[in-house]
């Protein structure tokens, strides 16, 4: 605590926000893996498993719109703490006898968790805009990349944690452990997080939740297709395929997907080194388009190789590594661009709208992941993924180009 107090106020707040985001992400990743593996082991079909996440994604769409407006009115510290508290409640709803875990009950808990996740994420990403001066775009990119990358590395650990806890202590006890740990984080955050961070000077009206910025609307549309492209094969189709077709156990599935997410997070953190920082040029819409075009080839090639009868395990493992590297850079670029494009006063309005599109993409991808996999297999999921990334690349062609800005340290 004494070391924390010696840091500058902005760095201290950044570390507190990042710590909150990390703790939340661990429980979010673990809960997703617990739900997928536990309910699939109970005999749920891939589509039924996907539907358990339907409210999670639907309420994420709504929450990002309303949450951005709420953050501008009451402050981002409050919306972040509300998100933490809601996740504790959502986890507690699953600490019930097995007979109570009906589809409507689990979907309701997932709805609350989806709302909590997007309040937490919107608050964390918006806060960084307010902690970095507007003329230090290089610093902004590095801070956003570090937050996003570390969060996804922790989400990967959460995947592994979910699979490990399910094997070691069972579903109910695993969820109870996570709820207790997050409750302690929430109590600490209530005391330490700066008051009124991100509150707009002028109270925004509710009708202002929809973005009027062409750049943000375009980036939001590209984000929708980008994350739909990931989730259409990663969320349900991949873990179920690994379990049913390749015969992997829970430990192996959780460990593999955890390693992928951790590596993905590390690459996200390093994205500034791949996308122009050495030239002193923050990335712009042209850079986002080029990286999306490169990503399109990966799921397309995987689908083609599977259709030709190549070894599925080799194709999926190697393809997932390549997809993860390029997807991480694309995601990090988008995360920087939205914070860069957003208006400083009421930043959460723009960020909330953008992450609404992100949640909508995840919703579409999640539903398609279960439905298309059940109907046509993982190859079809990969083909749709390629089409979605291509759409993101085409939309990115219209994004603004920045002037060269010296990267600040």
What does this structure look like?
The chain is an all-alpha fold and 409 residues long. The chain has one domain: Growth Hormone, Chain: A, CATH 1.20.1250. Helix content is 79%, strand content 0%. The chain is built from 15 helices and no strands. It has helices at residues 2-5, 9-41, 46-52, 54-74, 76-93, 103-131, 137-168, 171-192, 214-234, 237-244, 250-274, 285-307, 312-341, 347-376, 378-396. Helix 4 packs parallel to helix 6 (103-131), helix 6 (103-131) runs antiparallel to helix 7 (137-168) and helix 7 packs across helix 13. It starts with a helix and ends in a 13-residue tail after the last helix.
- Output the CATH class name: Mainly Alpha
Number of helices: 15
What can be said about the biggest beta sheet?
none
Please indicate the percent range of residues in DSSP E strands (runs of 2 or more). under 5%
Based on CA atoms alone, the radius of gyration comes out at 20 Å
Helical proportion, percent range: over 70%
Number of domains: 1
List how many beta strands DSSP finds.
0
Shape: globular
The name CATH uses for the topology is Growth Hormone, Chain: A
SSE diagram, text form:
Elements: H1 2-5, H2 9-41, H3 46-52, H4 54-74, H5 76-93, H6 103-131, H7 137-168, H8 171-192, H9 214-234, H10 237-244, H11 250-274, H12 285-307, H13 312-341, H14 347-376, H15 378-396
């Amino acid at each position: 605590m004494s070391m924390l107090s010696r840091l500058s106020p902005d760095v201290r707040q950044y570390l507190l926000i990042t710590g909150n985001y990390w703790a939340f992400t661990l429980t979010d990743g673990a809960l997703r893996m617990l739900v997928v593996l536990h309910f699939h082991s109970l005999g749920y079909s891939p589509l039924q498993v996907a539907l358990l996440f339907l409210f999670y994604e639907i309420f994420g769409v709504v929450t990002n719109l309303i949450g951005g407006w709420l953050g501008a009115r009451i402050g981002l510290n409050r919306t972040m703490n509300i998100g933490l508290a809601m996740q504790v409640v959502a986890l507690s709803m699953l600490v019930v006898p097995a007979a109570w875990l009906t589809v409507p009950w689990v979907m309701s808990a997932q709805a609350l968790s989806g709302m909590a996740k997007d309040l937490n994420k919107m608050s964390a990403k918006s806060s960084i805009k307010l902690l970095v001066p507007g003329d230090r775009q290089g610093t902004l990119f590095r801070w956003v990349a570090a937050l996003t990358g570390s969060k996804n590395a922790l989400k990967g650990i959460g995947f592994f944690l979910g699979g490990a806890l399910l094997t070691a202590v069972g579903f109910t006890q695993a969820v109870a452990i996570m709820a207790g740990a997050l409750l302690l984080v929430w109590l600490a955050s209530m005391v330490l997080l700066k008051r009124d961070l991100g509150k707009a000077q002028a109270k925004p009206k509710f009708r202002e939740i929809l973005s009027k910025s062409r750049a943000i609307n375009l980036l939001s549309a590209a984000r929708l297709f980008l994350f739909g492209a990931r989730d259409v094969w990663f969320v349900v189709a991949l873990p179920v395929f690994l379990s049913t077709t390749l015969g992997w156990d829970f430990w192996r599935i959780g460990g593999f997907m955890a390693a992928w997410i951790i590596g993905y997070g590390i690459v996200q953190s390093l994205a500034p080194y791949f996308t122009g920082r050495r030239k002193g040029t923050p990335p712009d819409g042209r850079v986002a388009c080029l990286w999306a075009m490169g990503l399109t080839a990966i799921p397309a090639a995987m689908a083609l190789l599977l259709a030709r009868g190549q070894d599925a395990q080799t194709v999926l493992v190697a393809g997932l590594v390549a997809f993860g590297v390029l997807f991480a850079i694309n995601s990090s670029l988008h995360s920087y661009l939205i914070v860069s494009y957003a208006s400083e006063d009421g930043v959460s309005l723009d960020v909330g709208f953008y992450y609404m599109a992100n949640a909508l993409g995840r919703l579409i991808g999640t539903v398609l992941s279960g439905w298309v996999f059940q109907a046509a297999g993982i190859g079809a999921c990969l083909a749709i993924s390629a089409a979605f990334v291509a759409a993101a690349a085409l939309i990115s062609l219209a994004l603004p180009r920045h002037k060269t800005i010296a990267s600040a340290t």
